[in-house]
UniProtKB/TrEMBL annotation:
PROSITE patterns: PROKAR_LIPOPROTEIN. Residues 1-17 form the signal peptide. Keywords: Lipoprotein, Signal. It holds the Pfam family GldH_lipo. The keyword Transport does not apply. It comes from the Bacteria. This is Gliding motility lipoprotein GldH.
Amino acid sequence: MYIKRIILFMMVLFAFACQNDTLVDQTVSLSEHGWLQKNKIVIDFQVTDTSKAYDVRVALRQSIEYPYYNLYFVPKVVNPEGKVIKRAFAEAFLYDAKTGKPKGSGLGDMYSHQYTIFKGLHFTRLGKHQVSLEQYMRTDTLKGIISAGASIIETTANDGQN
């Protein structure tokens, strides 16, 4: 387990070092019990330039203990006044529905997934914003979900403006 954490830390460090146009890139470790439905993941970030467009990506990490082939979740972006400026109902496919083989990149019994949720998002206000993630499964506790997070990366795309 110690080696897996070192490798995960090095991967996060490498990803952070390679992305200089990133507003935030944060992952939250969940309890050993999994992702509780009542526990929202909230990530704060600062917008300092409203002229740029950004892609919002969600990162999920799961173990083979996760019992379903998919995961429903709701990502939201909230402005400094607390108003939701972007919301979606998203589905992540963690396993192949026919073969049962895990998708994503893996090491041992853990797999990482990354999904672009919002493309070309423009912020109209400066200041502290938030990304929140809520699991939206019919189970109160999702065993096998190890971490979840988000990154907001500058893009050159102008489509998908809000």
